[in-house]
Amino acid sequence: MIGSRVVKALRFGVRAVWPDEAPTTLPGAVYPDWDAIYADNVGRIYRLMFAKVGNRPDAEDLTSQVFLAAYGPLRATAGVGQVRAYLTATARTVLAEHWRRTLGHQVTEIDLETTDLEDYTGPAAADETANGPTQQRTTRILRALPERQRQILVLRFLRGYSIRQAATELGVSIANAKVLQHRALRAAAGLDKDGTEGEAS
Amino acid sequence: MRHPVDSYVNRLLRRRRPKPFAPTQDELAVMRTAIDLMAAAPEAHGPRPPFVEQLRARISEQERDEKGPEAARPAWRAPARRRFLAAGALTAAGAAAGVGADRMAVIASGEDQNGRPGQPGPGSGPQQPQPQAELTPSVGVWRDVAASADLAEGDVHPFDLGSVSGFLRRASGRVQAVSGICTHQGCRLDLAAARDELSCPCHGATFTVAGVNLTHPRQSNGPLPALPRLPVREQTGRIQVYAPPPSPSHQD
Question: Closest residue of A to B27, CA-based?
Answer without folding.
Answer: A186
